[in-house]
């Protein structure tokens, strides 16, 4: 099973991306949704994974930046 993390900040851009993206992913992809607005202690984790803006999906070490909701710096 493939594991992925979807980081977002809860803004309308992020929520829309989450709904669209999760509906498109294969059922074999296990996605952990991380709301950085509710879990600010995980901003450093996202940054270490290579996330520079949210929404972003991290799969097997690859960061896919989707649209632009907020810079990671804005979440610190």
Automatic annotation (TrEMBL):
Domain of life: Bacteria
SUPFAM superfamilies given in the database record: Thioredoxin-like
A family per Pfam: Thioredoxin_3
Range of residues in the leader sequence: none
UniProt cross-references to Gene3D superfamilies, sorted A to Z: Glutaredoxin
Residue ranges of domain Thioredoxin-like fold in the record: 9-65
Designated name of the protein: Thioredoxin family protein
Natural source organism: Aquipseudomonas alcaligenes
Organism taxonomic ancestry: Bacteria, Pseudomonadati, Pseudomonadota, Gammaproteobacteria, Pseudomonadales
